[in-house]
Hints:
There is one protein chain. By secondary structure, this protein is an alpha/beta fold. The chain folds into 2 domains: 4-235, Spore Coat Polysaccharide Biosynthesis Protein SpsA, Chain A (Alpha-Beta Complex), CATH 3.90.550.10; 245-320, no CATH class. It is 40% helix and 19% strand. It has helices spanning 30-40, 60-70, 86-96, 117-128, 180-190, 201-211, 239-251, 254-269, 274-288, 292-299, 309-320, and strands at 4-7, 10-21, 46-53, 74-76, 103-107, 112-113, 132-135, 137-142, 148-154, 177-178, 216-219, 224-228. The strands form 2 sheets. Strands 1, 2, 3, 4, 5, 7, 10 and 11 form an 8-stranded mixed sheet that branches. Helix 6 packs parallel to helix 8 (254-269) and helix 9 crosses helix 10 (292-299). The longest helix has 16 residues, at 254-269.
Amino acid sequence: MGSVTRxxxxxxxxxxxxxxxxxxxxxxxxxxxxQVDSVLAQxxxxxxxxxxxxxxxxxTRSHLEERAAADPRITVLPQxxxxxxxxxxxxxxxxxxxxxxxxVAFTDQDDVWHEDKLATQLALMAATGADVVSSNVTSFxxxxxxxxxxxxxxxxxxxxxxxxxxxxxxxxxxxxxxSPQAHRSLxxxxxxxxxxxxxxxxxxxxxxxxxxxxxxxxxxxxxxxYRQHGGNVQGANSGAGARDARMEKLRNGxxxxxFIRTCRAALAVGTFDAPRRIELAAILRExxxxxxxxxxxxxxxxxxxxxxxxxxxxLAAARVLRVW
Length: 324
């Protein structure tokens, strides 16, 4: 599926890990270094790390450039053009990485990968024939002074539903690993789209992958420690604060706008058969309309719009009740 190099233990897959950074010098850069170290320490693969810094106002870029000077596996890209933002930065990394035969993975700047993360996920990809894999994660609360608070499993591996990709990601993007062929296909699709108003890169890429028929498998085994702290852009979907943030995004129209944009992108590039394309167009109309009948028709889809069907029921009920 991808290029390999041969070491003493036999052929090893090559994996390019894409890291988007912004003001990553929390705790004196300790979190950033811990993540970089965990990426470079991956067993059973030949790994390289490509970083795009999003105009940090702290020492993130210079710190990473110092590390790159000492380790040829690290590349820090020049400052990109365009509006700042994590989505634009990750998609810049993804679309500009050359098709060199390597597998491609995303990483955040402040998690900690299990040392066998990539090897485990590539084994899952080979065993299932998947084009892309992701996984569950273990979240942990990072406390001042280096302490660790609550740890818990964040499970995203419920069975895929017919339309879940229009309404949620396949888990944290830091767990995504793409085959070389999937990377090439998705870059070609992204070249046809305007994604400047897309707010969540991992959700969008998951939606595009499912729309063009790529096979996606979400592994049960957690592959990384998912750090939770005050600066998280998305964060774990847990706790009162996370629930309040999600509810506010429902009320203020952010999620509805993203649902609609994702549906339109799926229609533009998807390889659906005629019945599914007709159904997708109907979903888009139901999202765009404000009438009660459109809301009720949408609500009937509750079992197919989230992998966790309870979450699907909640989302559908909120639509009927005009929360969004």
